[in-house]
Amino acid sequence: MPKPERYRSRIELLQGTLDLLILETLRWGPSHGYGITQAMRASSGAVLQVDTGSMYPALHRLERQGWIASEWKVSDNKQRVKVYKLTATGKKQLASERSRWERLSAAISGILDAAKRPREA
Asked: Can you give the pTM of this predicted structure?
């Protein structure tokens, strides 16, 4: 059974990754939750499919943190939708999250690349 601290870190990593993806998607322009989900799906070649049970709590969390803002609008098909946009604070957070992700990605690549090299005796 994993330690609670480890589990919490894993959840934070997963939430942090979703936060990064949402912030990056909103950098392209304001969107409603379903639009963000579709943009992630399309941009990832349908590999990443975020369900509403994860998307909307993440959007609410990001809004509470002041990284995104929302307003109600009427969509093209006359539906009332909540549209989210990146705030100035969110743009700063996105830069920080991207930097952190790039360091993590480089570290993981280093391990994977090292696994390809023959070990020294």
From this structure: 0.82
Question: Is it true that domain 4-116 has CATH number 1.10.10.10?
Answer: yes
Q: Which of 71, 91, 93 is nearest to 81 (CA)?
A: 71
Sequence ranges of the domains in the chain: 4-116
Tell me how crowded residue 105 is: count the other CB atoms within 10 A of its CB: 10
Pairing between β-strand 80-86 and β-strand 68-74 as defined by DSSP bridges: antiparallel
Residue 61 CB contacts under 8 Å (≥ 6 apart), including other chains: 15, 19
Find tokens 């930097």 and name the residue. Answer: 99
Reported as a single tens digit per residue, the pLDDT across 66-115 is: 999 999 999 889 999 999 999 999 999 999 999 999 998 999 999 999 87
